[in-house]
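TA notes, week 10

Several of you asked for a full example with nothing omitted. So below is the full record: structure tokens for the whole chain, then the designed sequence directly under it. When grading your own attempts, check the secondary structure regions first.
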């Protein structure tokens, strides 16, 4: 099916994208805007949000694009996002959960506070934000979670991250059942993708070469690769797709698992 067909048209739709100041979230925001959506970019960093907003305005002609600076671990900030929706567009047609953190550490050295931080951002925040925004989602709306290949495989030094992404996948499956058929809920699971999150890993040319050997596509992913998949799941082209985890990983892994490499 042609992703550029009328079924991928986002004209008249309101899309909320978290983690929109960089990486996959920023790419998803640009992609949705380029197909006509009014995009609300949510992130923690004001300067990066403004830069992402300018890119969104360049990609899409809608004059209603805006930003909301928020810390999704704070319940008051989640409430503020819901209030902004109520006072602004009054609805949400697409909700993309791209905010997340990756902090690799050996299992035996992870503190309870570090585990709680990963869980708070990667699982609790999308749970509570979805809960806050579902009342503003009309029939035909779509929720897309950004998980990771690390949600289905074991990776050394990523126990907290892997656990959080498994939890996110479970949240998606439960919501897909509970919110159907009015709201479609799905997930994209990126593999090795070039994002600020894994910049440190990508400085190691040997590690990158090993990752590329484990990927059928023989390259790391680009944020646009994931954004296109998000756009598909959010669009009418995916109207019969419910409760799916769409792997966007270039065919990883095929033979072995590298350690210390964030899968998105």
């Amino acid at each position: 099916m042609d992703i550029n067909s009328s079924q991928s048209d986002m004209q008249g739709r309101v899309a909320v994208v978290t983690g929109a100041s960089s990486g996959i979230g920023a790419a998803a925001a640009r992609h949705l805007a380029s197909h006509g959506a009014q995009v609300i970019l949510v992130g923690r960093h004001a300067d990066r949000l403004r830069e992402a907003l300018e890119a969104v305005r360049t990609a899409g002609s809608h004059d209603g694009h805006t930003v909301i600076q928020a810390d999704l671990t704070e319940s008051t900030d989640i409430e503020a996002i819901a209030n902004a929706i109520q006072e602004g567009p009054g609805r949400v047609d697409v909700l993309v959960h791209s905010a997340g953190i990756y902090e690799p550490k050996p299992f035996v050295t992870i503190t309870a506070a570090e585990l709680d931080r990963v869980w708070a951002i990667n699982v609790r925040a999308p749970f509570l934000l979805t809960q806050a925004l579902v009342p503003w989602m009309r029939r035909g709306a779509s929720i897309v979670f950004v998980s990771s290949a690390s949600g289905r495989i074991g990776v050394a030094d990523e126990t907290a991250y892997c656990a959080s992404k498994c939890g996110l996948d479970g949240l998606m499956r439960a919501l897909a059942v509970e919110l159907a058929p009015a709201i479609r809920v799905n997930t994209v699971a990126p593999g090795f993708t070039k994002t600020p999150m894994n910049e440190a890993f990508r400085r190691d040319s040997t590690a990158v070469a090993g990752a590329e050997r484990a990927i059928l596509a023989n390259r790391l992913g680009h944020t646009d690769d994931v954004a296109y998949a998000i756009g598909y799941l959010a669009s009418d082209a995916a109207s019969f797709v419910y409760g799916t985890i769409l792997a966007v990983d270039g065919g990883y892994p095929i033979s072995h698992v590298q350690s210390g490499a964030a899968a998105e």
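Residues 112-133 form the longest helix (22 residues). Use that as a sanity check on your answer.
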